[in-house]
Design goal:
The structure holds 2 protein chains of 2 kinds. Chain A is an all-alpha fold. Chain A has helices at 3-11, 14-39, 44-59, 62-76, 82-108, 111-119, 124-154, 166-177, 180-214. Helix content of chain A is 84%, strand content 0%. Chain A starts with a helix and ends with a helix. Chain B has 8 helices and no strands. The chains are: A mainly alpha, B mainly alpha. The interface between A and B is large, with 40 and 40 residues.
Protein backbone atom coordinates (compact mmCIF):
# COMPACT_ATOMS: atom_id res chain seq x y z
CA UNK A 1 0.00 0.00 0.00
CA UNK A 2 1.46 3.36 -0.92
CA UNK A 3 1.94 6.32 1.32
CA UNK A 4 -0.99 8.37 0.06
CA UNK A 5 -3.51 5.58 0.59
CA UNK A 6 -2.23 5.09 4.16
CA UNK A 7 -2.57 8.80 4.92
CA UNK A 8 -5.99 8.95 3.33
CA UNK A 9 -7.29 6.01 5.34
CA UNK A 10 -5.85 7.33 8.61
CA UNK A 11 -7.45 10.72 7.96
CA UNK A 12 -10.85 9.02 8.13
CA UNK A 13 -10.13 8.54 11.85
CA UNK A 14 -9.24 12.17 12.50
CA UNK A 15 -12.84 13.41 12.90
CA UNK A 16 -13.44 10.74 15.58
CA UNK A 17 -10.26 11.63 17.44
CA UNK A 18 -11.11 15.34 17.31
CA UNK A 19 -14.74 14.76 18.29
CA UNK A 20 -13.69 12.56 21.23
CA UNK A 21 -11.24 15.18 22.47
CA UNK A 22 -13.65 18.10 22.11
CA UNK A 23 -16.71 16.34 23.53
CA UNK A 24 -14.91 14.91 26.56
CA UNK A 25 -13.09 18.17 27.22
CA UNK A 26 -16.27 20.26 27.11
CA UNK A 27 -18.28 17.79 29.20
CA UNK A 28 -15.38 17.46 31.64
CA UNK A 29 -14.92 21.23 31.90
CA UNK A 30 -18.59 21.63 32.86
CA UNK A 31 -18.64 18.66 35.28
CA UNK A 32 -15.49 20.02 36.91
CA UNK A 33 -17.32 23.14 38.13
CA UNK A 34 -19.55 21.43 40.74
CA UNK A 35 -16.66 19.11 41.65
CA UNK A 36 -14.38 22.10 42.23
CA UNK A 37 -17.14 23.78 44.28
CA UNK A 38 -17.41 20.63 46.40
CA UNK A 39 -13.63 20.40 46.82
CA UNK A 40 -13.33 24.07 47.80
CA UNK A 41 -16.38 23.99 50.09
CA UNK A 42 -15.94 25.63 53.47
CA UNK A 43 -17.59 22.64 55.15
CA UNK A 44 -14.72 20.22 55.91
CA UNK A 45 -16.83 17.10 55.25
CA UNK A 46 -17.92 18.30 51.81
CA UNK A 47 -14.40 19.32 50.89
CA UNK A 48 -13.12 15.94 52.06
CA UNK A 49 -15.77 14.20 49.94
CA UNK A 50 -14.67 16.20 46.90
CA UNK A 51 -11.01 15.36 47.50
CA UNK A 52 -11.88 11.65 47.83
CA UNK A 53 -13.85 11.59 44.59
CA UNK A 54 -11.00 13.29 42.72
CA UNK A 55 -8.40 10.95 44.25
CA UNK A 56 -10.38 7.81 43.37
CA UNK A 57 -11.03 8.91 39.80
CA UNK A 58 -7.37 9.68 39.25
CA UNK A 59 -6.14 6.46 40.87
CA UNK A 60 -7.85 4.14 38.40
CA UNK A 61 -6.43 3.85 34.88
CA UNK A 62 -8.49 5.40 32.03
CA UNK A 63 -8.93 2.04 30.32
CA UNK A 64 -10.69 0.64 33.40
CA UNK A 65 -13.10 3.61 33.34
CA UNK A 66 -13.80 3.11 29.66
CA UNK A 67 -14.39 -0.63 30.09
CA UNK A 68 -16.55 -0.03 33.14
CA UNK A 69 -18.74 2.47 31.29
CA UNK A 70 -18.88 0.47 28.07
CA UNK A 71 -19.35 -3.06 29.38
CA UNK A 72 -20.85 -2.62 32.82
CA UNK A 73 -23.24 0.29 32.19
CA UNK A 74 -23.88 -1.05 28.69
CA UNK A 75 -24.92 -4.36 30.21
CA UNK A 76 -26.94 -3.26 33.23
CA UNK A 77 -28.33 0.19 32.52
CA UNK A 78 -28.44 1.28 28.92
CA UNK A 79 -26.70 0.17 25.75
CA UNK A 80 -24.11 2.74 24.79
CA UNK A 81 -22.28 3.21 21.53
CA UNK A 82 -18.47 2.93 21.91
CA UNK A 83 -18.20 6.66 21.19
CA UNK A 84 -20.71 7.64 23.89
CA UNK A 85 -19.04 5.30 26.39
CA UNK A 86 -15.61 6.75 25.60
CA UNK A 87 -16.86 10.33 25.98
CA UNK A 88 -18.48 9.52 29.34
CA UNK A 89 -15.38 7.73 30.63
CA UNK A 90 -12.93 10.37 29.44
CA UNK A 91 -15.06 13.26 30.68
CA UNK A 92 -15.17 11.77 34.20
CA UNK A 93 -11.36 11.71 34.24
CA UNK A 94 -11.16 15.19 32.69
CA UNK A 95 -13.56 16.56 35.31
CA UNK A 96 -11.38 15.28 38.17
CA UNK A 97 -8.23 16.78 36.70
CA UNK A 98 -9.80 20.10 35.69
CA UNK A 99 -11.43 20.47 39.12
CA UNK A 100 -7.94 20.54 40.63
CA UNK A 101 -6.79 23.04 37.99
CA UNK A 102 -9.79 25.31 38.71
CA UNK A 103 -9.12 25.05 42.41
CA UNK A 104 -5.52 26.17 41.92
CA UNK A 105 -6.74 29.07 39.81
CA UNK A 106 -9.39 30.03 42.38
CA UNK A 107 -6.66 30.24 45.01
CA UNK A 108 -4.56 32.39 42.69
CA UNK A 109 -7.25 35.10 42.37
CA UNK A 110 -6.22 37.90 44.75
CA UNK A 111 -8.27 37.97 47.94
CA UNK A 112 -9.09 41.65 47.42
CA UNK A 113 -11.39 40.68 44.54
CA UNK A 114 -13.68 38.69 46.85
CA UNK A 115 -13.54 41.35 49.56
CA UNK A 116 -14.30 44.13 47.09
CA UNK A 117 -17.33 42.19 45.80
CA UNK A 118 -18.62 41.94 49.38
CA UNK A 119 -18.12 45.65 49.92
CA UNK A 120 -20.05 46.65 46.81
CA UNK A 121 -22.86 44.31 47.90
CA UNK A 122 -22.75 41.57 45.29
CA UNK A 123 -24.57 38.33 46.10
CA UNK A 124 -22.57 35.10 46.23
CA UNK A 125 -23.87 34.14 42.78
CA UNK A 126 -22.91 37.51 41.34
CA UNK A 127 -19.49 37.33 42.96
CA UNK A 128 -18.75 33.97 41.35
CA UNK A 129 -20.43 34.71 38.04
CA UNK A 130 -19.06 38.18 37.30
CA UNK A 131 -15.90 38.51 39.38
CA UNK A 132 -14.30 35.16 40.13
CA UNK A 133 -15.30 32.90 37.22
CA UNK A 134 -13.81 35.06 34.45
CA UNK A 135 -10.52 35.34 36.31
CA UNK A 136 -10.42 31.63 37.15
CA UNK A 137 -11.03 30.83 33.50
CA UNK A 138 -8.18 33.07 32.42
CA UNK A 139 -5.70 31.78 35.00
CA UNK A 140 -6.51 28.13 34.32
CA UNK A 141 -6.31 28.46 30.54
CA UNK A 142 -2.63 27.45 30.13
CA UNK A 143 -2.87 24.38 32.41
CA UNK A 144 -6.26 23.42 31.02
CA UNK A 145 -4.96 23.54 27.48
CA UNK A 146 -1.92 21.42 28.27
CA UNK A 147 -4.31 18.98 29.91
CA UNK A 148 -6.39 19.04 26.70
CA UNK A 149 -3.30 18.06 24.70
CA UNK A 150 -2.74 15.16 27.11
CA UNK A 151 -6.41 14.24 26.66
CA UNK A 152 -5.95 14.15 22.87
CA UNK A 153 -3.33 11.45 23.41
CA UNK A 154 -5.54 9.62 25.91
CA UNK A 155 -8.36 9.38 23.36
CA UNK A 156 -6.27 6.72 21.59
CA UNK A 157 -7.38 4.43 24.43
CA UNK A 158 -10.94 4.60 23.06
CA UNK A 159 -9.76 2.38 20.21
CA UNK A 160 -9.74 -0.47 22.76
CA UNK A 161 -13.56 -0.36 22.96
CA UNK A 162 -13.93 0.07 19.20
CA UNK A 163 -14.19 3.78 18.43
CA UNK A 164 -12.96 4.13 14.83
CA UNK A 165 -10.34 6.77 15.66
CA UNK A 166 -6.83 7.14 14.24
CA UNK A 167 -5.37 4.51 16.58
CA UNK A 168 -7.97 1.88 15.67
CA UNK A 169 -7.58 2.48 11.93
CA UNK A 170 -3.79 2.26 12.27
CA UNK A 171 -4.22 -1.04 14.11
CA UNK A 172 -6.63 -2.49 11.53
CA UNK A 173 -4.53 -1.36 8.56
CA UNK A 174 -1.48 -2.98 10.14
CA UNK A 175 -3.30 -6.27 10.63
CA UNK A 176 -4.37 -6.19 6.98
CA UNK A 177 -1.15 -5.09 5.30
CA UNK A 178 1.74 -5.83 7.71
CA UNK A 179 3.19 -2.39 7.02
CA UNK A 180 3.02 -1.24 10.63
CA UNK A 181 6.21 0.78 10.47
CA UNK A 182 4.95 3.48 8.14
CA UNK A 183 1.32 3.24 9.26
CA UNK A 184 2.11 3.94 12.92
CA UNK A 185 4.64 6.60 11.92
CA UNK A 186 1.91 8.45 10.01
CA UNK A 187 -0.57 7.95 12.84
CA UNK A 188 1.97 9.55 15.18
CA UNK A 189 2.38 12.43 12.71
CA UNK A 190 -1.40 12.89 12.89
CA UNK A 191 -1.35 13.17 16.69
CA UNK A 192 1.72 15.46 16.57
CA UNK A 193 0.04 17.83 14.15
CA UNK A 194 -3.15 17.98 16.19
CA UNK A 195 -1.26 18.71 19.40
CA UNK A 196 0.82 21.41 17.71
CA UNK A 197 -2.38 22.95 16.40
CA UNK A 198 -3.96 22.87 19.87
CA UNK A 199 -0.85 24.40 21.45
CA UNK A 200 -0.86 27.13 18.81
CA UNK A 201 -4.54 27.96 19.29
CA UNK A 202 -4.27 28.04 23.08
CA UNK A 203 -1.25 30.34 22.93
CA UNK A 204 -3.06 32.64 20.51
CA UNK A 205 -6.16 32.77 22.73
CA UNK A 206 -4.03 33.32 25.83
CA UNK A 207 -2.09 36.22 24.36
CA UNK A 208 -5.32 37.73 23.02
CA UNK A 209 -6.89 37.68 26.47
CA UNK A 210 -3.72 39.08 27.98
CA UNK A 211 -3.73 41.96 25.52
CA UNK A 212 -7.33 42.77 26.35
CA UNK A 213 -6.70 42.67 30.08
CA UNK A 214 -3.51 44.65 30.10
CA UNK A 215 -4.77 47.42 27.87
CA UNK B 1 -23.23 -9.46 48.16
CA UNK B 2 -21.80 -12.79 49.31
CA UNK B 3 -22.02 -13.90 45.67
CA UNK B 4 -19.81 -11.01 44.62
CA UNK B 5 -17.40 -11.75 47.42
CA UNK B 6 -17.13 -15.43 46.46
CA UNK B 7 -16.55 -14.43 42.85
CA UNK B 8 -13.79 -12.07 43.91
CA UNK B 9 -12.09 -14.76 45.96
CA UNK B 10 -12.28 -17.09 42.97
CA UNK B 11 -10.98 -14.53 40.47
CA UNK B 12 -8.31 -12.97 42.61
CA UNK B 13 -5.48 -15.45 41.88
CA UNK B 14 -5.83 -14.90 38.11
CA UNK B 15 -5.96 -11.14 38.50
CA UNK B 16 -3.04 -11.22 40.89
CA UNK B 17 -0.87 -13.07 38.36
CA UNK B 18 -1.70 -10.34 35.87
CA UNK B 19 -1.08 -7.62 38.41
CA UNK B 20 2.39 -8.99 39.12
CA UNK B 21 3.17 -8.64 35.41
CA UNK B 22 1.85 -5.05 35.46
CA UNK B 23 4.04 -4.23 38.45
CA UNK B 24 7.02 -5.91 36.84
CA UNK B 25 6.61 -3.94 33.59
CA UNK B 26 6.17 -0.70 35.53
CA UNK B 27 9.27 -1.38 37.65
CA UNK B 28 11.45 -2.32 34.66
CA UNK B 29 10.26 0.72 32.70
CA UNK B 30 11.13 3.02 35.58
CA UNK B 31 14.50 1.37 36.23
CA UNK B 32 15.46 1.81 32.58
CA UNK B 33 13.51 4.99 31.90
CA UNK B 34 14.59 7.29 34.74
CA UNK B 35 18.35 6.98 34.03
CA UNK B 36 17.47 7.59 30.36
CA UNK B 37 15.57 10.69 31.45
CA UNK B 38 18.62 11.89 33.40
CA UNK B 39 20.88 11.30 30.38
CA UNK B 40 18.46 13.04 28.02
CA UNK B 41 18.02 15.94 30.44
CA UNK B 42 21.78 16.50 30.58
CA UNK B 43 22.23 15.72 26.86
CA UNK B 44 19.50 18.22 25.96
CA UNK B 45 21.67 20.97 27.43
CA UNK B 46 24.95 19.70 25.91
CA UNK B 47 27.28 22.11 24.11
CA UNK B 48 27.67 19.79 21.11
CA UNK B 49 24.78 20.48 18.79
CA UNK B 50 24.40 16.92 17.43
CA UNK B 51 24.08 15.42 20.92
CA UNK B 52 21.60 18.11 21.91
CA UNK B 53 19.43 17.51 18.86
CA UNK B 54 19.58 13.75 19.23
CA UNK B 55 18.30 13.97 22.82
CA UNK B 56 15.66 16.59 22.06
CA UNK B 57 14.26 14.53 19.17
CA UNK B 58 14.05 11.34 21.26
CA UNK B 59 12.30 13.26 24.03
CA UNK B 60 9.82 14.94 21.68
CA UNK B 61 9.01 11.64 19.94
CA UNK B 62 8.37 10.00 23.30
CA UNK B 63 6.17 12.84 24.53
CA UNK B 64 4.43 13.81 21.31
CA UNK B 65 2.55 10.65 20.42
CA UNK B 66 0.13 8.63 22.54
CA UNK B 67 1.77 5.84 24.57
CA UNK B 68 -0.67 3.44 22.90
CA UNK B 69 0.73 4.32 19.46
CA UNK B 70 4.28 3.92 20.77
CA UNK B 71 3.43 0.48 22.17
CA UNK B 72 1.74 -0.74 19.02
CA UNK B 73 4.46 0.78 16.84
CA UNK B 74 7.09 -1.30 18.64
CA UNK B 75 4.98 -4.46 18.75
CA UNK B 76 3.11 -4.46 15.41
CA UNK B 77 5.23 -1.99 13.45
CA UNK B 78 8.82 -3.05 14.05
CA UNK B 79 8.37 -6.59 12.66
CA UNK B 80 7.99 -4.87 9.25
CA UNK B 81 11.64 -3.90 9.51
CA UNK B 82 12.61 -7.43 10.54
CA UNK B 83 12.89 -6.85 14.31
CA UNK B 84 10.31 -8.78 16.29
CA UNK B 85 9.87 -8.06 19.99
CA UNK B 86 7.94 -10.15 22.49
CA UNK B 87 4.97 -8.35 24.02
CA UNK B 88 6.87 -8.03 27.32
CA UNK B 89 9.95 -6.46 25.77
CA UNK B 90 7.87 -4.21 23.52
CA UNK B 91 5.90 -3.04 26.59
CA UNK B 92 9.03 -2.33 28.59
CA UNK B 93 10.74 -0.61 25.65
CA UNK B 94 7.74 1.64 24.91
CA UNK B 95 7.05 2.55 28.52
CA UNK B 96 10.76 3.07 29.27
CA UNK B 97 11.00 5.40 26.28
CA UNK B 98 7.94 7.28 27.43
CA UNK B 99 9.28 7.41 31.01
CA UNK B 100 12.61 8.73 29.76
CA UNK B 101 10.91 11.40 27.69
CA UNK B 102 8.60 12.69 30.43
CA UNK B 103 11.08 12.36 33.31
CA UNK B 104 13.77 14.18 31.34
CA UNK B 105 11.57 17.27 31.54
CA UNK B 106 10.95 16.73 35.27
CA UNK B 107 14.65 16.18 35.94
CA UNK B 108 15.68 19.14 33.77
CA UNK B 109 13.38 21.37 35.83
CA UNK B 110 14.92 19.89 39.01
CA UNK B 111 18.50 20.48 37.83
CA UNK B 112 17.67 24.04 36.80
CA UNK B 113 16.15 24.69 40.21
CA UNK B 114 19.49 24.10 41.94
CA UNK B 115 20.69 27.53 43.12
CA UNK B 116 23.19 29.20 40.78
CA UNK B 117 25.48 29.85 43.75
CA UNK B 118 26.10 26.10 44.00
CA UNK B 119 27.56 25.98 40.47
CA UNK B 120 29.54 29.17 41.03
CA UNK B 121 30.95 27.87 44.28
CA UNK B 122 32.07 24.60 42.69
CA UNK B 123 33.74 26.55 39.90
CA UNK B 124 35.56 28.64 42.49
CA UNK B 125 36.66 25.46 44.22
CA UNK B 126 38.12 24.36 40.88
CA UNK B 127 35.81 21.40 40.18
CA UNK B 128 35.55 20.36 36.54
CA UNK B 129 32.17 20.65 34.75
CA UNK B 130 31.63 16.89 34.98
CA UNK B 131 32.46 16.80 38.69
CA UNK B 132 30.20 19.78 39.35
CA UNK B 133 27.32 17.93 37.73
CA UNK B 134 28.08 14.62 39.39
CA UNK B 135 28.81 15.76 42.93
CA UNK B 136 26.90 19.02 43.29
CA UNK B 137 24.07 19.52 40.81
CA UNK B 138 22.64 16.04 40.17
CA UNK B 139 22.16 14.99 43.82
CA UNK B 140 20.42 18.26 44.69
CA UNK B 141 18.44 18.37 41.45
CA UNK B 142 17.17 14.82 41.86
CA UNK B 143 16.10 15.60 45.41
CA UNK B 144 14.01 18.48 44.13
CA UNK B 145 12.61 16.29 41.35
CA UNK B 146 11.75 13.38 43.67
CA UNK B 147 8.06 14.13 44.38
CA UNK B 148 7.07 14.70 40.72
CA UNK B 149 9.10 11.62 39.73
CA UNK B 150 7.15 9.50 42.21
CA UNK B 151 3.91 10.98 40.91
CA UNK B 152 4.98 10.01 37.42
CA UNK B 153 5.79 6.47 38.57
CA UNK B 154 2.11 6.07 39.48
CA UNK B 155 1.09 7.24 36.01
CA UNK B 156 3.38 4.59 34.52
CA UNK B 157 1.77 1.90 36.69
CA UNK B 158 -1.56 3.03 35.25
CA UNK B 159 -0.11 3.15 31.73
CA UNK B 160 0.84 -0.54 31.93
CA UNK B 161 -2.90 -1.18 31.53
CA UNK B 162 -2.46 -0.21 27.85
CA UNK B 163 -0.14 -3.18 27.28
CA UNK B 164 -3.29 -5.27 27.18
CA UNK B 165 -3.73 -4.06 23.57
CA UNK B 166 -0.50 -5.80 22.56
CA UNK B 167 -1.50 -9.10 24.18
CA UNK B 168 0.55 -8.81 27.35
CA UNK B 169 -1.18 -11.01 29.94
CA UNK B 170 -1.37 -8.25 32.55
CA UNK B 171 -4.20 -7.42 34.92
CA UNK B 172 -6.58 -5.74 32.44
CA UNK B 173 -6.32 -8.61 30.01
CA UNK B 174 -7.01 -11.07 32.83
CA UNK B 175 -10.02 -8.97 33.84
CA UNK B 176 -11.20 -8.84 30.24
CA UNK B 177 -10.93 -12.62 29.91
CA UNK B 178 -12.87 -13.19 33.13
CA UNK B 179 -15.45 -10.61 32.03
CA UNK B 180 -16.06 -12.28 28.70
CA UNK B 181 -16.36 -15.70 30.36
CA UNK B 182 -18.73 -14.71 33.17
CA UNK B 183 -20.36 -11.47 31.87
CA UNK B 184 -19.86 -10.08 35.38
CA UNK B 185 -18.14 -6.97 34.00
CA UNK B 186 -19.23 -4.60 36.75
CA UNK B 187 -17.91 -6.89 39.45
CA UNK B 188 -14.60 -7.82 37.85
CA UNK B 189 -13.85 -4.24 36.78
CA UNK B 190 -14.59 -2.98 40.29
CA UNK B 191 -12.11 -5.49 41.69
CA UNK B 192 -9.52 -4.44 39.10
CA UNK B 193 -10.05 -0.75 39.82
CA UNK B 194 -9.75 -1.50 43.52
CA UNK B 195 -6.41 -3.21 42.99
CA UNK B 196 -5.01 -0.14 41.24
CA UNK B 197 -6.57 2.19 43.79
CA UNK B 198 -5.10 0.26 46.71
CA UNK B 199 -1.62 1.14 45.47
CA UNK B 200 -2.29 4.53 43.88
CA UNK B 201 -4.33 6.20 46.65
CA UNK B 202 -1.86 5.69 49.53
CA UNK B 203 1.03 6.44 47.18
CA UNK B 204 -0.59 9.70 46.00
CA UNK B 205 -1.13 10.76 49.61
CA UNK B 206 2.50 9.92 50.38
CA UNK B 207 3.70 11.94 47.39
CA UNK B 208 1.59 14.91 48.51
CA UNK B 209 3.12 14.64 51.96
CA UNK B 210 6.64 14.49 50.53
CA UNK B 211 5.89 17.48 48.33
CA UNK B 212 4.93 19.56 51.34
CA UNK B 213 7.79 18.50 53.56
CA UNK B 214 10.74 17.66 51.36
CA UNK B 215 10.13 19.38 48.05
CA UNK B 216 11.40 22.76 49.09
CA UNK B 217 15.07 23.26 48.63
CA UNK B 218 17.01 24.75 51.55
Amino acid sequence: MDMLTVIQKLCAGLPWTIALTLASFIAGAILAIPLCALRSARNAHLSYLGATVILIVRSIPPIVWLFAVFFAIGQHVIRLSPFAAAVIGLSIITAANLAEIYRGALKAVPKGQSEASHVIGLSAWQRYRYVLAPQVLRISLPSASSYAIGLLKDTAIASAIGVADVALIANQLTQQTYQGLQIYAWAAVGYFSLSFLMAYVSRAVDSRIRMRIER
Amino acid sequence: MTGTFNDWVEWFPRLWDGYLISLQVAALSLIIGIPLGLIWAIGGQAKVRSIRWFCVILVELGRGGPVLILLQFLYFGLPTSGLTLSSLSASVAALAWSTGAYTSEIIRAGLNAVAVGQREASQTLGLSRADTLRIIVIPQGLRIALPPLLGFALLILQATSLCFTIALPEVISAANDIGSETFQYMSILSLTGLMYALICIPATLAVNYLERHLGKYD
